[in-house]
Amino acid sequence: MERLNKKTSLVKHHMFANKIIILLLIFVVIQSCEKDFLEQTNPNALTTGDFWNNNTDLNFGLNATYSVIKDKDIIAIRDEAVRTDIATHQRWRAKSLSDAMYDQNFDGTTKYVQNKWNALFLGVFRANQVIENYERLKSGYSNEDAEEEGLRIVAQARALRGYFYYMLSTSYNGGSVPLLTSIPKTFAEFQQAFSTAEAVKEFYRADLTFSLENLPETYTAWEKEDGNNLGRITGGACEALLGKSYIVDNNFAEAEVYLKNVIDNYNYELVDDLAKNFTGIAEFNSESIFELNFTTSVNLDAVGEEILAQDVTHLIYGAGIQPSSWITLKYREEKPDANDPANMNIGANVYDDQGEVVGTIDRLRRYSLRMANSMGSVDDIDSPMYGVPQGTFGDGDGIAYARNRLNVFKKFTHWNTIGAGAGEDKSTDFNNKSDINIPVIRLADIYLLYAECMLEKGDLSEALRYINRVRKRSHLYLLGKSSDPGAEFLNAETTYIDDINLDINGGEVVTITNLMEHLRFTERPLELALEGERSTHLRRWGVFKQQLMKLASIKYDYWTVPPNFNGKHAKPRYKCFLTRAGETPEHFTLPENQRTREKIGAQDAIIGSGKFSESLHAYLPIPQNEIDANLNWDVIKD
């Protein structure tokens, strides 16, 4: 074992010595107790003798493990998005209000850093309880049904443990974390040295491989076994995670095998409408590989610690996070295919300067359907928000963010299921609670990862095939040539453009080099905003700081929309969308006194881009509470 060189202050030495003295005193007191008292069983505590006796008990333990996976700090939609190029926090323009993750000012004491670690290791502990007790029980099964049920239970527990360790490996300390393979029972067993990143990956890949071989392949297969199994982890999810684990290492040859198996052998398909993945209208659909199941249909106060509803919907609805200025412009610049009928707005309203409808017109939609399903903007006149035009939404209901915030995310909200401009249900029973499921892995992500493998392999045609499948779903122009061997959409409703900027008169033909850049900084962020482990990818590409610096280098103008623009609304929309500094939106011109430029406020990531250090911020650090509790936190196992 090798002890890492760490500087430890004199104060910490004194604290450590005091802890040892206290432990010794406790030991002396315990030794002085009567032996018969020490041998008594606590009547209020569950033991292996009165629990963990059968598969029913194992299932209870498994359900407790599943409940951990829904902890909001594990996927951490808010904190992971703001530390990258995807999002900003609510008050980002007020420079006096800092945010540790957005400003790259986090350390081992930051709440998110500690909470995520605690949640993941709680999951590991609970999975280990199931696994360890299964191993004790399995020799006593009396029939094949019990054996099969037990195998299904332990395969799920190992899959979940594999996922928890995948997240620990990709999130913390360069992938080096304590490897808990059993339930700690003594003080010494709690003082776990850290394992190497390679050992951690080898361990969780073994878990995922075992589960891949012993679980139903898909949600449909689970349902055929038992109609109440939606939400259980599947063999397909395990195979996808294995592929992603090699992507993290930039081991594209190994990743390719697993990703192609997921594509070819599980009957997954992209859904026809991106919104079906995020608004509760088609959950556990054909695109879903692994998703977290939430509900508000039960008494949430009567279920103990189990997480049944999520609070992401209300976080987004209240503009607790907002699209970064950079990604906002990326969405606004996407071009809907003019030949695709899905992009035609038939009978679109025409408004006068009082917001009254004065006629209708058939025209091409202003912004792409991918933007419409991902981000709201008051000047998007083709996509409703809670049943009303986006320019009108919030006018009479006191929804301040709809009038004075920049563009807002629409993913994980009920924007297309709640009408009449009502917005999210903020009544006592449902405030900060939502039933929308959250996808962990979906097929579009696998397609884009596989396309990256093809680019690394030098196969431009095959990479374009999978990128264009994702683009076609949102009715965008497709990249490359219709004569390419990988072209699949050969009809009059689809337009291929062999220009990386999708300029029909452009001269920069699609190549492996520029398509890789496009994949990293257009397809992945726009398709997978708020869901795609963005920090992991920026880190493995070696462009984390470079991308933050790019964000900080761009200046923006804010635009205030006057009353009765895009519908009847008496109040202006204050600083409600942006353009690059000096640019005017193509679709309308406002007088100079109605546009505002803030030379300092209209830049993203100014503090974070300067503070970001690869060694400090590419991974999350070891939490301070782990350092305080673990005497071997600075020891690496051979």
Automatic annotation (TrEMBL):
Residues 409-630 form the RagB/SusD domain. Keywords: Cell outer membrane, Membrane, Signal. Its main location: membrane. It is found in: Cell outer membrane. The keyword Iron-sulfur does not apply. SUPFAM superfamilies: TPR-like. Signal peptide: none annotated. It comes from the Bacteria. GO terms for cellular component: cell outer membrane. PROSITE patterns: PROKAR_LIPOPROTEIN. Residues 36-220 form the SusD-like N-terminal domain. Belongs to the SusD family. This is Carbohydrate-binding protein SusD. It comes from Flavivirga aquatica. The lineage of its organism: Bacteria, Pseudomonadati, Bacteroidota, Flavobacteriia, Flavobacteriales.
